[in-house]
Design goal:
6-stranded mixed sheet, 16 helices, alpha/beta, about 475 residues, 26 strands
């Protein structure tokens, strides 16, 4: 048990009705999970307002209510704490409740539109190979040293983050690498965390269904760097025009990486193929098993981070050459019929363009490039025609299909995608709503040496339709369909 006054440390409080010296059980922001002597934090969300469930939480045994407005009728024996911002309060309280676990390890946050999962996951891999106990908080999974948990969000809620960080403390973890999403920053989920460093990858069109404008999206990302402490480092991609903007007001030590500009960590692609990359990193040559120029940027960020965290250069280079690709990120196989299938999480215009341009740079153009792509439902609609245009323009054949339609009509989503196709590319496109059938058709259209790209879902092992998730794995499906062709 912990005292209320201890978990309220550093929280911006406007008023208190009741006593703050009592012991509490745990913190909850979902009234349905409240138990006797819990603290209930009323969060204003995009769908519902926790203030509407204060009475329910008290009925279930909440001893303390954290809110932005104290109810007109206060229940005797319940303490009400009025704060400026309950999301911010939850983040600080969560850290206090778990005894500030982020300060007991070196926590590095990775933010940007593309590359977050790859960089965080490969940093976990690299430091693990270097002999350290390491943690990972990513879209794909949460890892506490060697124990793996399923991930549900890019950036989990504050309580979940601090719970896992405390588990990492208990396991003796020294470094943790964490994806930091714009949603997570905006909803104050990372507030109260003690970051040792922050990495900026790039910024392109995404999440405008949530942030409304690109400027708002960019500015939210910037607040992560604004709040880094002076002892931390900020490592940014200098080739992205937003890189310099991110660190304008940061107190952290500023560092840059780039392929095209002068930077602290400079890279040059010497060779690029489906087998990997030969890179020059700050005058050192290294062979990596990852593919494409976008991975050259990722490797540069990893190289810079490893050095900033104290690893020796030669050891870092050796470890870089041994890194394995992340599930669903340019994950590929070659069938017995010599058809190459690539599965990638590319679900933004910029990511799709990067993957297609990488394939086109590597291939000889004697092969046919067949792309299977869709867009998620209940998400940014503005990017749909843009992605349709990119896929049709940069592929020999394109099949538009469902991604995760969620509550939207998948046929309407496909119509939105088709609007971006230029007249000269119409004949190269085909629309098949059923994703499995679309993948099967791509396999049937492919001949020896052809390349199939299946974009959008990557590592995901489900498809969400009308609120229901069913098993669906792009990589397993394409592998099965290509195997059928060999019989």
């Amino acid at each position: 048990m912990i005292e209320l006054k201890d978990i309220l440390y550093k929280v911006s409080i406007n008023a208190v009705v009741g006593n703050t010296t009592m012991s509490i059980n745990k913190i909850e922001f979902d009234s349905r999970k409240v138990e006797q002597d819990d603290v209930f934090v009323a969060i204003r969300g995009s769908v519902s307002d926790g203030h509407d469930f204060i009475e329910k939480a008290v009925d279930r045994g909440a001893l303390v209510v954290i809110c932005e407005k104290v109810p007109n009728i206060a229940v005797s024996g319940v303490t009400y704490v009025e704060v400026e911002d309950t999301q911010s309060a939850l983040a600080i309280m969560a850290s206090n409740y778990y005894d500030s676990p982020s300060g007991n390890l070196k926590l590095v946050g990775v933010t940007g539109t593309n590359g977050k999962t790859t960089i965080a996951s490969l940093l976990y891999q690299l430091f693990k190979k270097a002999g350290f106990k390491v943690g990972l908080l990513s879209t794909v999974k949460v890892v506490v040293d060697t124990k793996v948990y399923d991930a549900t969000h890019t950036t989990p809620d504050s309580l979940t983050i601090n719970y896992y960080l405390k588990e990492m403390n208990n396991a003796g973890v020294e470094y943790c690498f964490m994806e930091v999403s714009s949603h997570g920053i905006h909803q104050k989920r990372t507030e109260g965390l003690d970051f040792a460093g922050g990495i900026f990858t790039n910024l392109s069109h995404d999440h405008l269904d949530y942030h409304n404008t690109f400027k708002e999206y960019r500015d939210v990302k910037k607040t992560f760097f604004d709040e880094l402490p002076a002892k931390a480092f900020a490592l940014v991609n200098k080739d992205d025009k937003n890189g310099s903007f991110m660190i304008q007001n940061t107190k952290a030590k500023q560092h840059t990486y780039a392929l095209k500009s002068y930077a602290d960590y400079r890279g040059q692609i010497l060779e690029s193929s489906l087998e990997g990359l030969l890179l020059k990193l700050n005058d050192h040559e290294v062979w990596a098993k990852l593919i494409g120029s976008f991975n050259a940027y990722n490797l540069l960020a990893i190289f810079g981070t490893a050095e900033l965290l104290g690893l020796e250069t030669l050891e870092t280079l050796q470890l870089l050459s041994d890194l394995q690709s992340v599930s669903g990120r340019f994950q590929y196989m070659i069938s017995d019929e010599k058809i190459t299938a690539i599965v990638d999480y590319a679900h933004t215009p910029d990511a799709l363009k990067n993957v297609l341009e990488t394939i086109n740079d590597i291939r000889t153009n004697n092969e046919t490039l067949i792309t299977v792509v869709g867009c998620g439902g209940d998400r940014d609609k503005m990017k749909r025609p843009v992605m349709g245009n990119i896929a049709a323009r940069l592929s020999n054949k394109t099949i538009f299909t469902s991604d995760n339609p969620r509550t939207e009509n998948p046929d309407q989503i496909i119509e939105d995608i088709e609007k971006g196709v230029e007249p000269q590319d119409y004949k190269k496109t085909l629309s098949i709503t059923d994703r499995k059938q679309a993948i099967k058709t791509a396999c049937q259209l492919a001949n020896k040496d052809d390349i199939i790209l299946i974009a959008g879902k990557g590592h995901e092992t489900y498809q969400e339709i009308n609120g229901e998730r069913t098993d669906f794995n792009d990589f397993e499906i394409v592998k099965q369909e290509l195997k059928k062709l060999n019989k």
